Fold these 3 entries.
Entry 1:
Amino acid sequence: MFNKDFYPTPSSVFYMLVEGINAYSLNGNSILEPSAGKGDLVKQIERYVSSIRNVSIYMMENDLELRNILLGLETTATFIGSDFLEDDCYYKPDLIIMNPPFSNGDAHLLRAWDLVNGNGTIRCVLNAQTYDNQCTAKRKLLGSLIDEFGGVTHRGSWFKDAERKTDVECIIVTLTKPKETDDLDLDLSKLKKEGIKELLEDKNNELALKDSLGNKELFYKEAIKHFEECTKAYSRCVKAMNGVIISEYGKPKLEDYLGKGQSGYNAFIKCFNKNSWEGLMNESDFKHLLTAQVQKQFTESFSKQSALMFTKNNMMEMFSTLYANAGNILDSCILEVFDHFTKYHKENRVHVEGWKTNDVYKVNKKVIIPLSFSWSGLDWDCKNKLNDVDRALGYMVGKKVGDFVTVADELQSLIKAKANGTWGFSEFFKVKYYLKGTAHLEFRDILLWERFNCAASQLRGYPLPEATEVERRYKNSQKGLA
């Protein structure tokens, strides 16, 4: 069912992986599981830190079948990418817990070493031969890292009786990366907390005073130099973000993340990544196809998509998925409008004769729908629902919202002109409103009205008998025939 390297992590192995790690010490930390499989190790990590409020868990998985299982899990872990060896990963995890493929565990562990935060830890299940038989350049490099920065803590054939069985002898490797530091290499050995005051009182120690004051000057100059660098870097960062996110509203405020160390850095990556995906969707042509309900569903599923690294491959995959589902999205659009038109007034429905159930009906040529108002005219929710109507009909004639006068546009104009009860004209309807909170819509094109009903009825599962004739007339009208 799954690939040859898939060996889920038994709980006994998990406890060897976290041996000596106090769960409470992980508060404020980020944890990465880069070969998450179907989530066995991720779920064990979640349980281990369940009493800690502030822990971020990230996961990756390259196998498509396993990835689909992961995305369906109820988990607090965030899926951030597919291929651990190839995908860009800008997060800097404090702890990496991993059970990589036995066939190339060396490459996975070296990649983990590159990614883990300074002073961070890696715990890895590894095929023992990867360390014992250092016959390649990668294995030799990994062996030197293990010898210098960690060690082997356990050894055994732990998968003999596991969910997927193998006699491969394994080891647990622990690595701790040296702390990264940007400390200035300046000599303040003679400067104590009260050093300047004491040296001023000691009139015989002029040399020590000069050294201490010289150190003060050095730090002053360094501070100015680095502030200038920060200012330039800030401007460069903002300029780069402008190439990804057009709207000012969608850009992270850098000052919210600067000066907060590694947690601030990871928080910025998370926010910038999410906003970059949202900016891409707002910029694309897909947005005009999504009704309010579909947008809501898409937003719920998009929360997982927006955690993925913002790479060209991931962007192409998302658009491929949207293109593949475009037909279903637009069909949903038609059905939502059909339901919206028929649920408020009996006068909106025309019952279809000859059917066993009384629930089969078409939308009337003239419909009445409720309106809700705000200080500026129609409220936001009402506008969205009205725009859904135009999305559906626009889809049927090859036009999109924004290229014609919509029902919402025309009603706003009528409300502004205080034309209560007066007919106006949108692209597809005669429209009028009443202050009591209703709008009357009448289809301007009889053939479009018939095609809409035929399409909705077909999707509902009761194709109308006139559908073939309606489609013939539509095609003839496109050709200019009677």
Note: The mean pLDDT is 84.
Entry 2:
Amino acid sequence: MELEPKQQQAIIALLTQPTITGAAESIGINPKTLHEWLKQPDFREAYAEARDQTMDQAITRLQQAISKAIDTLIAIMGSDLAKDAARVTAARTILDMAFKAYELEQIAERLTKLEQRLEGLNEQAQRGNQ
């Protein structure tokens, strides 16, 4: 179902305003109207899709900045001109990020193994039902 132009504006406003009331007021509708639209499955689906696209764009931008951020931390950590507190903070940040990345890698690996085991069990169960 195609959304009305005002509903499309409302989705943009929801993504850019800090509150539902602010979003409604920014496009000249009553906040109650926006609350009602948020109860409609088509509107909620379009809003969720728009939020997902916005997050995808934000993640892409963050990913593009990762190398520069790491380079900056490494430069501060290794700089004799930086204050000791800044060097310690940079080193701690790098270590924290490394440990988190390792943990995520381990979790992803374990999840993949569990999914493979579950798939195998499902296949066995299907063969048993035949």
Note: The chain has two domains: 1-78, 84-130.
Entry 3:
Amino acid sequence: MEPPGAHVPARWAIAHDPLTRLQIGAAAAATVLAIAATGDVLLLALLLGLAAANRWALAAAVGAGLSVLTRWGTTSLAALAGAQHVLGPAVTVGPPRAAVASGLAAAALVVAPGAPGSAPAFAAAAALLVAGPAVTGSGGAGDLAVRAGATAVALGVTLAARRWAPPRLAGPAAAGLGVVAALAGAGT
């Protein structure tokens, strides 16, 4: 009797990268914080780094969090979601430099390397940064549709990046995007 998939070529095999209990808990907590838009963006960055168990992903998440601080002047996720509820999605509002900073922060999160199981947490955080009214807010179906669409796109890009981008290149690229996003958000 042979084990399942004994003669399956390596390129056809599905990558299996199990998460530890700590990673599962961190990913779940990060997803809840991002979807509910509550808590602090730097706590979210720490949880994302723990979920990915990757120093580059942590650096990218901290850079994205600092981008929120430099652009909006706060690390509160509720304030970020509230500002986007009033003004509109962050990538379409404000001076072009500030909008680009939000886009770069989200890009840092979606290209950050990590276990495939942590991808939904990174996608939810990226969607919050670019299109963030809280889904539990009073914005109605329009806000929910924008946020759901942004999350779906971010999840697709995150999964594709984790499947196709080599971690040795994706990690430094994600961290670099986070730093550039933080610098671009400064002074806006």
Note: The CA atoms of residues 29 and 66 lie 20 Å apart.
